[in-house]
Amino acid sequence: MSTSANIDELCRGVVDLHVRADLEQRLGAGKPLRIKAGFDPTRPDLHLGHTVLMQKMRQFQDLGHEVVFLVGDFTAMVGDPTGKSESRPRLTKEAVHAAAVTYTAQAFKILDQSRTVVRYNSEWLEALKPSEMVELCAKYTVARMLERDDFSKRYADKRPIFVHEFLYPLLQAFDSVALECDVELGGTDQLFNLLVGRDLMPRYGKRAQIVMTTPILEGTDARLENGLVVGPKMSKSANNYVGISDVPFDMLQKLLLIDDSVIFRFIELLSSRPLEQIATEKADVAAGRLTVIALKEAFALEIVTRFHDADAASEALARRRSVARGALPDDIEEHTIPSEGGSIGLGKALALANLVKSSSDGVRQIQGGAVHLDGRRLEKEEANIRLEPGNRYLVRVGSKNRKFAHLKVV
Question: What's the CA gap between 66 and 72, in Å, rounded?
């Protein structure tokens, strides 16, 4: 592959690139580059949002470059202030190392382990003497730190900024000095931190690193509004994530339930298909030559196969289609529901089983035709239907994202 083709592939999906001319020059020299991406293991589980960056790392690996998977065990205990209106809670060393073990094991579902160097930034940061820490701080100004949105907003609002938070970008930048990186990768929210590294390296006599950022993937609840993809980023706390350790059926189910209007956003960031093929699929969907469900099934199969295998993906899709045709899933939960005065309203029973948000939401779902009771869809006028004690009922809530449960009324 030519240098030009390499650059085009490496720049696919990249948001920020500082500076393309530097990247062209270093790739043109024909020597393997050292690529660094840092991860603070604050949580043990990875989801598809994390893999956008890791896939870029894998692209560099496949082109023969050295990838350093940097575990920020020291910086995780400081706490990254990125995107925070308040100071992050500090983590213990034990919690960070426990998360790091799981983190790296999951990362190798994407990265080539034989071509990945794993380093911990405590190796050099814990060894810094007080005089060296002072020297590091002397190479950057408070004014430059306050250019960062997180800090400037907190300063203007008179919310506290602790001194150790100023240290975080400097410590992350020193990682690049210690590793003598050619390229540092990160999400778009890390641009400030990465550029501090680019600024700092020449002040230590090192060649400035190239900075590349990848998009932050929205969650599975993303929607299209006024032509723009909107929604919170994918995260476990928002319950809008697809975990790379999810079982095949759950992974496929979540991918198929992504809104049709934003599915190409996920395909463009996560699929390994050539851009030309994705463009053709867009045109085919627009012209009615390809259905969205067929597109989504092919995409879901690709992702499940990547993290499991082709047989598991095919079995998950077959099960999904069976459920969609009306077949019952294998793992229906049973809930014991206490009756009230001899019976209980179905809306409240659904809420007690965590199938709806509240009793009133349950009533609305019944009125909207989204609830089936013992295989029969309930009508609007049955919104106040009551369940009798001593009976066991099969309920289904929803049409697209179906939830099943057995309700045993006592």
Answer: 18
Q: What is the dihedral of CA 178, 146, 230, 258, to 10 degrees?
A: 30
CATH architecture of the domain with residue range 3-214: 3-Layer(aba) Sandwich (3.40)
> What's the average model confidence in pLDDT over 204-222?
96
DSSP 363: H
Kindly give the pairing relationship between strand 333-337 and strand 344-345. unpaired
Assign 82 a pLDDT band (cuts: 50, 70, 90). low
Choose among 71, 81, 88, 162: nearest CA to 124. Answer: 71
Domain with CATH 3.10.290.10 in the chain: 333-409
pLDDT (tens digit per residue) in 148-201: 878 888 888 888 888 888 888 999 999 999 999 999 999 999 999 999 999 999
Which burial class, exposed, middle or buried, applies to 3 when counting CB atoms under 10 A from its CB (0-12, 13-18, 19+)?
middle
Architecture of domain 333-409: Roll (3.10)
66: tokens are 């050295």
pTM of the model: 0.75
What span, in angstroms and rounded, lies between the C-alpha atoms of 102 and 43?
9
Which burial class, exposed, middle or buried, applies to 79 when counting CB atoms under 10 A from its CB (0-12, 13-18, 19+)? Answer: buried
In terms of CATH architecture, what is 223-324?
A: Orthogonal Bundle (1.10)
